[in-house]
Amino acid sequence: MPEIFICGTMQRIDVSFRYSSIIRKVVGSPMVVWVFWLIAAGVLFVVEMMTLTFYLLWLSIGALAAGLVSLIVPEAILFQVVLGSLVALGLTIFSKPLVSRFRHSRGFKDTGTEIIGRQGVVVEPIEQGRYGQVKVGGDTWSATSEQSLGKDEVVRVVKRGTTIIEVERWGEMN
Fold first, then answer.
1. Chain centroid to CA 137: how far?
2. How many whole angstroms separate alpha carbon 42 and alpha carbon 63?
3. CA–CA separation, 146 vs 172, rounded Å?
4. What is the pTM of this model?
């Protein structure tokens, strides 16, 4: 139990009591903590489905593991956080070789690289240092450019990040 000086005297602070009392003040009951873990896991999973990075999926699974632990030991918040973090970290570390092997396997086609070199149309103007939107095929992407581009200009995709593409004016490709 940690000790601190208060008004020149040594005082003991029951940290576990403070955590549980804080949780009771915030959520009303420590039994409800698993709901917050479940909501966090769901939000992370939905964001993962939009970004397809796999990292948020591992965080989502970590939050789910922490939620399951909170059902068993609802007062052990620190244990839930540590376990959820370890699960997410372990999945991140051990899945990298598998993902790398999968990407280099025969027949794998990364849909992200197919967009490079394709033609698109600026839907929302792009200014230097700010995002705009470009329609490529039937999809609309957030886009950046080293030059300002106006609406309806024809562009070429030169690079793709996770969800953002980099474009340049059509015909300026070296």
1. 26
2. 9
3. 12
4. 0.50
